[in-house]
Every structure is written in C-alpha cells, then in structure tokens.
Amino acid sequence: MGTFLCNAVLGIVLLQGPQNPHPDSVRAELWARVTADSTDGAAWLELGRAYLQWGVEYHAHKKPMTVDTVWAHATLDTAQLAFERAARFSTGTRTADSARVYRVYAFGELAYVDWETGGTAAATLTWHTLPETLRLPPV
Hints:
Helix 3 (41-56) packs antiparallel against helix 4 (69-89) and helix 4 runs antiparallel to helix 5. Helix content is 72%, strand content 0%. By secondary structure, the chain is mainly α. It is built from 6 helices and no strands. It has one domain. The radius of gyration is 20 Å and the shape is flat. It has helices spanning 2-16, 23-36, 41-56, 69-89, 94-118, 120-128. The model has no long low-confidence stretch (mean pLDDT 80).
C-alpha cells in the first residue's frame, strides 16, 4: 500500500511540474532574441538547432510515401543559415565550433532527404555542394 501511495504521489508531482514549451513558441522566442540583437551568436546557434530538430522530424515516416521535400529543404536551409551566422558572429569560440559541426550535420540531413527521394546519385550531388570552408583540409 505504501509503494502504491508513493507512486501515486510521484505521478501527481510529475503531472503538476512545468511542461515543455511548444516548439513553435521556442522558435518564436529565439527569433525575438536575434531580432533584438542580430549579432548574438549563441541565439543563432540555438535557433539553428531548433530548426534542425524540426527538420529531422521529416524522417519520421515509417514506410515509403510521397512527402514534402521542399518543406524539409527549407527547414534545413534555415538551420544552415542560422549556423553560418552563429559561426560568423562568434569567431574563435565554442559556439562557432559547434555551429560549424552542426552545418556539416545539416548537409548530411539534406543528403539523407535527397537519398530518400532520388537515390545515391542525388545524395552525392548534395555532398558536392558542401562549401570549401567546411571541408577537412588535405593531409
């Protein structure tokens, strides 16, 4: 009986705890931050991460189906733009390094979207559009 009551109290506490904010409100808050200070690299990084997470949800379908690849590309392009600005406004910091890594990850997501719709040739073409500044230097 004591275990049941403890679990019931724990359940009530969890239900009354703060809820995660809706993703749209998070993006709106981040857009407000970068509107207030367009050189805030950390805000641009968080905005890019929010759009990247939103774009990754594109892969949630479990079976082959016609889906909106334009939406996925637009979302991932917005994420890349935010990461580019985060790197530019935070030169020499961890934020800039993280932004560069996320930009490469976003290119991988674009290649994945293209692979799902157009096969390996489409994914290869996407990787060839990777900017030289993001490529590893030759050894």
